[in-house]
Fold this protein.
Amino acid sequence: MKVSIIGTTGFGGVELLRILHQHPTFQIQSIHSTKDEIPIWEEYPHLYRLLDKKLEPINSEQIADQSEIVFLATPSGISGQLASEFVDKDIKVIDLSGDLRLPSSDYKAWYKHEPVHESLLSKAVYGLSEWNMELIKNSNFIANPGCYPTASLLSLAPVVKEDLIDPASIVIDAKSGVSGAGKSLSRNTSMSEANENLRVYKVNQHQHTPEIEQQLLQWNNSIQPVTFTTHLLPITRGIMTTAYVQLKNEMRTTQLLELYSEIYHQHPFIRIRPENTFPSIKEVAGSNYCDIGLHADNRTGRLTIVSVIDNLMKGAAGQAVQNANLMSGFDVMTGLDFVPMYP
Ligand SMILES: NC(=O)C1=CN([C@@H]2O[C@H](COP(=O)(O)OP(=O)(O)OC[C@H]3O[C@@H](n4cnc5c(N)ncnc54)[C@H](OP(=O)(O)O)[C@@H]3O)[C@@H](O)[C@H]2O)C=CC1
Ligand SMILES: CC(=O)N[C@@H](CCC(=O)OP(=O)(O)O)C(=O)O
């Protein structure tokens, strides 16, 4: 199947290249950029002699004629416009941005951009692979989830769906490596500011807050607004979310681990860690895994759930290819069977 990438020179785009280059069924047809028409290895020398492709201008007609799947690894505000040029044609579109994940009013309030037209928005399926599998399989248009929502939602889904927690008690403490901010230079992600530092940012204003709440509410309509706080870690890849929730009734850690293991049993990318072990970011780096560890504190009645992903893989390009696999009728693992890059 022929696939094309727009926004190829960004961190999400170049991660898509890494995955798709060795995918057994998807074939990279064309790669697109607003930049000069140069070989991709001139922009990314690690691809020298591995990928013999030139960046091409974004000509939607031509891309639509040549591709069966288009990945949009473009910024919010841009993706929505580009998507509208493809969705009515008979090709599949997977968008990595936040443009198609939220209702217009929330998008406007949190992203501060003009939302896309309702007719386009209504066609997009939220691509949280493990939980929206059937909808994804039957869709041609995917709003790939944000990186933080992926880690947070996968960790909270079982207790929220099973109605085991006080719905007003959710606190998510989240930390990300700097590649989450994309390739553009910024002061906070510069070496001198980020290295040997830990910085909190967008306190109570992060654009992923409504995305998390929206999905939690679909699972359990009693859920109240969540506290979601993001921090910048001095590492390149990876996200850790630590969720704190109040259990409605006393439960043992073993019971909860059994529940999580049962629920995620058939989902190869979700690894539930044994009791008293917790995942670290490096244990999933470079892979599409989401690893989850948890502990119920019987002193406080609170449950602590730790979830780690690679923001560029399960948090972006990896989940996008997982969704493309689902849309194409392939096994989810196809082309995504990466062992984490440890150490
Ligand atoms: N980084 C991450 O961990 C995650 C990112 N995302 C989302 O994925 C998308 C891509 O993120 P990321 O790769 O990090 O971002 P980057 O900033 O690294 O790259 C974005 C790319 O978009 C292209 N672009 C910029 N402006 C335009 C435009 N006007 N028209 C067409 N293309 C344009 C650029 O490519 P060129 O210069 O070649 O045109 C640029 O390289 C974003 O929406 C981001 O929010 C989602 C989850 C995680
Ligand atoms: C570390 C870092 O800065 N991360 C970014 C993630 C942005 C992102 O993925 O944007 P979407 O809204 O399109 O999903 C942030 O926190 O804003």
